[in-house]
Amino acid sequence: MKNxxxxxxxxxxxPWLLAAVAAGIYFVLSAIYIVxxxxxxxxxxxxxxxxxxIEIVKGIMFVLTSATLxxxxxxxxxxxxxxxxLMIEQQRQMFVASEKRAAAGVFASSIAHDLxxxxxxxxxxxDEVIGFPALADQQEIMDDLKQSTAHIxxxxxxxAAVSGKDILTGMRSMDIAGMTRDIVNLxxxxxxxxxxTVELEAPEALTVDADASLLHRSLLNLMINAGDxxxxxxxxxxxxxxxxxxxxxxxxxxxxxxxxxxRAQVLEPFYTTKQDGSGLGLMSVKYCADIHKGALGxxxxxxxxxxxxxxxxxxxxxxxxxxxxxxxxxxxxxAADASPA
Length: 341
Hints:
Blueprint: H1 9-12, H2 15-44, H3 48-131, H4 138-161, E1 171-175, H5 176-187, E2 197-201, E3 207-211, H6 212-229, E4 235-242, E5 246-253, H7 260-266, H8 283-291, E6 295-300, E7 306-313, H9 318-329
Parallel strand pairs: 2-4
Antiparallel strand pairs: 1-3, 4-5, 5-7, 6-7
Helix pairs in contact: 2-3, 3-4, 5-6, 6-8
């Protein structure tokens, strides 16, 4: 056990007690000075004028001495406070640096999770090409291979961006309806989705300002999560529609759903109910919603399971893009996992 004498004085005693002791000492010393100096002045003064002059000099000396003591006392106090502030600032910078490293590690884990989804699709396509080289839709399979490879390169670009570069380099005006159709078709080749009944309700076109790579990762994750929740044999409904200011994408499934009391936990970092889960399934989705100043939520599904929705503002203001980029670079990344299997 640490000896109490080794502890700082302020920790061993309450501040008001220290202040009271200091004030009491000052009062006693001042009273002693006044009494004895008055007696000395009276003994040396020959008349009232001389006594008055002595009292004036005595008062000036008292004030000068008090001011000197106060100066050095405050100088020491402020010096200690300054050192404390510098130490706190150093600790804060070390904490921020640690948070950035932790955020980079979590983000890298999320990238690895999403790369695995793409590689699963790539593996399926490769198996199809090898097993059925003469299929009429071989060109479509090759296009899927090229598309997934391009997205893997995009993921690597975002991973490198954690080092401090602008995360929103992919922001552009895009047709989210066309992209959603492409992702639904691509997700149908994933092992957890290809035996599900997948339906899509979307307009012919819907334009938003967004990062296509981030949206691709988010929607693909949500569809794979839905397939996983239905054990790969259920029904998945993808809805895309326009609200007043946003584009809203809903991923419904007819799985067991998520109890309301667990939904907040699902959106927390590293939370998972799966035996083989990592708690990173929804990191890309939450990150995508945050970076676009959008929203991510969970609702009951009309299919009887759960509905994950993501809302992306149709128009991103330049100031919002810049603020979102700064927020990500500060290390304020948040993560969550998918629906329970």
